[in-house]
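Standup, Tuesday
Yesterday: got the pipeline producing structure tokens again.
Today: sanity-check two examples.
Blockers: none.

Example 1:
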Amino acid sequence: MDNNIKREIILENYQNPKNKGLLNDDSYLKTNMNNESCIDELNLEVKIEDDIIKDIRFDGEACAICISSASIMTTTLIGKTVKEAETILENFLNMLDEKPYDKEILEEAIVYDDIYKNPNRKKCALLSWWGIEKILNQLKANEK
């Protein structure tokens, strides 16, 4: 993907983030994520019904990369099954760790394919994804 298009997608998702704003609904699973090395702090709410991610909301104070990544993550994962979300998450993490990944399933999240070149920004892009991983792991633990 062209670098100018990547920048446009990141900027659009920062300036007009999708699914920003918490609902404080008890039917949502919640977590707080923060990056110790900067100001990034996000609260995530995820609604899962019948093994499908029905909604993801986020809010907090964070940089452009963190906010845009959270926005893109929400639009990528809403409507997916938990298993599909886990596969997308695994591929996103692999991409940022420079491991083999399937770029076809990442949708707009592919805009971060070269973020590894800026190691200090990698955590910014990962914060919301780590939050989803944490929530999905809690969900699995509760099912046991």
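Example 2:
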Amino acid sequence: MPAKKKVPLLLPFLIWLFVALLFGELLAKLILMHGQGASAHYSANWEMRSVSEAFHINLWSEPWLNYRPGAEVSHENEGQTYVATINSLGFRGEAFDSVEDQKVVKIVCIGGSTTVNGPTDGETYPALLEKFINQRSAAKLVKVLNCGIAGMDSGSYGRTLSRLGDNGIVPDLAIEYNGINSICWKLFPYWESKLNGMQKLLLKSNLVRSVLGDLFVPTEAQVIRDLHRFCIEDLERLRVELERNQTKLGVASFCVPDPRLASGKESSYLNHNLRYWWKSNYISYTKLFEIIQLYNKELRETFADSDVFFLPLAESGGFLPEDFFDICHMKPEGVEKKAYLLSRLVQPMLEEEFSESAENI
């Protein structure tokens, strides 16, 4: 009787491996599609977002660079009226004149959509910051101008300073709150451009991107170097520019939802919001959170022994995942909380640096 041929053990192993990988690839695709649908829940209401985050097409003279003075847009959604107006200076909300009472401390808030974010002009964090500071003063001695531009990254602040200068405005204090635009729109694409051919090929897999994508992020040491190159060096240049007019700079740490405090549904939403709407591709929300923590740490250490005021907003521990719409934009109650906490952080600075002007603050 002839002996039966033995089937090489490698062949069934390879077949089962192929089947497992195929199943994993399909499952990853289904999860991705489900997450995209979930993340679209807020982002899909484009009209509401375009007004509340001030990027509506009718607001621009140059999209993502300059607002059109005098522009106004509104939107009704579920009984809520959203309104964004652009003042004569080309910024959202009320303007203040170039010549003011010397006792008024003039503050400008610089940043992107997280600075202009709010259902109405009066519900943005700069407007609320002015309100909270002045509520604690015997006289209204602080005026805050919202100098945010939706989409602005740290490399574009020179435009804002030029516009202020052209209008004869010399602020006493500039508060910068941003970081996310430089990280997501400049740093992430830079890292992706540095991937080699094999890495790019592997990342075409839904499974690899979903499960192993964070392995393609540079080392922590390289991340820190790149954060300085793409973000913090811009802030150092901003400080130098402001000093020419004796304007102080305050830099606030950036707030994002803590994934350790998020429910499973919230974590899934944040992850897909980052990948789908912020185009992170293979970088997970958990990894972004770690990068933001490094960014805040480097901010604090860079300006620790300088005349730049570091405002530990994120470290205040006052924010929960439910305070946010997405990975960085806050709901109205979150914006109000941000403004209140910032007012408490700014208060000692006003008392120390502008005591003559702000003696009643």
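Quick observation on example 2: The longest strand covers residues 105-111. The CA atoms of residues 125 and 335 lie 6 Å apart.
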